[in-house]
TrEMBL record:
This is DNA mismatch repair protein S5 domain-containing protein. It comes from Paramecium sonneborni. GO terms for molecular function: ATP binding; ATP hydrolysis activity; ATP-dependent DNA damage sensor activity; mismatched DNA binding. Keywords: DNA damage, DNA repair. The keyword Ligase does not apply. GO terms for cellular component: MutLalpha complex.
């Protein structure tokens, strides 16, 4: 017999889909900070985010009047009407992240807007504001997420903590490359794991190579109507460390076609070597006309499809190849280990 699930169960299932891991919580929160025009974003993680995640920004802050609706599903300050969806200028628009997180954690929000005398601290659970009081604090927002998945015991147990920390570090490093005007800091157990500098310095630290082995280029096309900015390293001796970080219209996404062609570009240039002997880092930002990106892709899905995907991927990887080996004289860059 079919029966409709109680709302409580529906909410728990939906929340589990939006926030699958500490990684997804951090991605959503950092995007909120960027939407709030933050120039500084600091993230603290305890026990890979399972015990405590704190995200502190110096962005616009949250109005006292907004606390009541802050964690309600489909409550957002970013769009108002359906037409706004066709011209989005923010990462968020669904009003789902805070709501979902509030179902699977104990959440505290401390925020002060520049035009307010004091800030406010609110505690939340299952979409509801539990308590609220004035508090002295600096401009911006701090969100504390404690005991993540306290009510999803299996998910807590199944989490691979070291993998999680690795992917969070990679996420923050990648975001810091794209949003280079923002100062990012990431702490694990109160110890600084990453602090963003300029892009070249970040990549040189990740790959342990000299900055002179990193190049920056702009590839554009009038035919396929795109602009792209690429930062790439020569093949280095950091074995198996291959990172391809792709932003399409400012969103961090994945695209298998591009990834494969970039790998091939390196393989073709370094024929004398087995590619598994070397590593590289490629940051690529592509700006396409919004109408050329598949609108059916769910915002949560990282995979993206776009018009002329094959042609654009081939063109960019061919240009990369030319830059990598102008005279076909290529050799492996030694790392500074
Ligand atoms: P969305 O980002 O889709 O609007 P969220 O659940 O992520 O949904 O956030 C709900 C609302 O909370 C946002 O629309 C925004 O008004 C507010 N908010 C969340 N985080 C911040 C922040 N760091 N600074 C300012 N406002 C925030
Ligand atoms: Mg959001």
């Amino acid at each position: 017999m079919i029966k409709k699930l109680p709302q409580e169960v529906i909410n728990k299932i939906a929340a589990g889909e939006v926030v699958q891991r500490p990684f997804s919580v951090i991605k959503e929160m950092v995007e909120n900070s960027i939407d709030a025009h933050a120039q500084n974003i600091t993230i603290y993680l305890n026990n890979a985010g399972l015990d405590l995640i704190r995200i502190i920004d110096n962005g616009d802050g949250i109005m006292k009047e907004d606390y009541e609706l802050l964690c309600e599903r489909y409550a957002t300050s970013k769009i108002r009407v359906a037409e706004d969806l066709s011209q989005l200028f923010s990462f968020g628009f669904r009003g789902e992240a805070l709501a979902s997180i509030s179902f699977v954690s104990e959440m505290t929000v401390i925020s002060k807007r520049r035009d307010q005398q004091v800030g406010y601290k609110g505690t939340f659970n299952s979409q509801k504001l539990l308590s609220m009081c004035p508090i002295g604090c600096s401009d911006g927002t701090e969100i504390q997420i404690a005991s993540l998945f306290y009510n999803l015991e299996k998910r807590r147990e199944a989490l691979n903590k070291s993998e999680e920390k690795k992917s969070i570090l990679q996420l923050i490093q990648n975001l810091s490359l794209h949003h280079s005007q923002i100062q990012f800091k990431l702490f694990y157990e109160n110890k600084c794991e990453f602090s963003s500098f300029n892009r070249l310095e970040t990549i040189s630290t990740i790959m342990k190579i000299n900055q002179s082995c990193i190049q920056e280029k702009q590839f554009d096309s009038d035919v396929y109507k795109y602009e792209s900015h690429i930062i790439f390293t020569k093949l280095s001796s950091v074995k198996c460390k291959r990172e391809f970080c792709l932003f399409i219209n400012d969103r961090l996404v994945e695209c298998d076609t591009l990834k494969k062609k970039i790998t091939l570009a390196y393989q073709d240039c370094y024929l004398c070597l087995r590619v598994e002997d070397g590593g590289y880092y490629v940051y690529l930002s592509i700006k396409l006309q919004p109408k050329d990106i598949d609108p059916n892709v769910h915002p949560n899905k990282k995979i993206v499809r776009f018009l002329n995907e094959d042609e654009i991927s081939t063109e960019i990887s061919e240009k990369l190849k030319q830059e990598l080996s102008p005279q076909q004289t290529v050799k492996l860059v030694q790392t500074m280990l």
